[in-house]
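Shall we go through a protein fold together, starting from nothing but its sequence? Please make up or recall a protein chain and show it to me in full. Go ahead whenever you are ready, and we will take it from there.
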Amino acid sequence: MHCHGMKRVPGDRHGRTRRLFLDLRDDRVLAAIFHQKGSPFRLPTPGPPFRFLALFGLSLFSPLLAGCQGDLSALDAAGPSTAAIARLWWAMLAGAAVIFGLVMALLCVVFFARDKVKHISPQRWIVLGGIVMPVPILLALLGYAFYQGETLFGDRVSDAEITVVATSRMWTWDFAYELDGRTVTSRDILHLPVGRPVRIETTSVDVIHSFWVPRLGGKIDSIPGQVNAIVLQADVEGTFGGICSEYCGVGHAGMTFRVTTHSVAEFENTLKKLGP
């Protein structure tokens, strides 16, 4: 069994922080990871900056191992609305990664090249690191968010030729369609045609629920006595998951529904088979 020795911690705050990083640098467990023969993390140079950067790289890229696809993933877009949301999400992630990388680079400079930056005053650090560095990135992201917002909610949204009424109640969804002057319904299965925008009007008969099909668009509240609407469009045929995204009681977790998308002809035939 290996026991780590404890070293005296300096009394000042900056000294304690520096000692923590020096202990990590000298830790024999980390050394075994980075110097073991055949290890994928083996570094050509055993200096402290390289170990620190390796740890930083692992912490930054390991979340990418998690999948971004799935039945309820807004990043696995199946329609133009969700595609806009996914693009905005990736842009925000890239901006956050850039800012985080710059901050970590400055941190490395402070710990491993302090003599080169000790002449910089605290006021300049605040202005350069807290304002000059992040503000241009944040402004660019804000502008891109407004642009994508126009794609989702502005004049670019096509006028829907089809309207479906989604009525929520504990803990099911009823969908009503107009067909040849009569109303047909389906429970917990929403039918949509591919390539055509559909207006979803939703309301509730009891408490507040929230209508959300992550792969097709954003979410919208379903409120008693009020009708809210959202336009969805599917670009591919298939089956997608839908959920209530507002906690509504003990049956909330099971308040799900399926969205089945059809070709236009098959969509009309499917509606003809539904009852009132």
The longest strand covers residues 162-169. The longest helix spans residues 80-112. Residues 1-11, 27-46 have pLDDT under 50 and may be disordered.
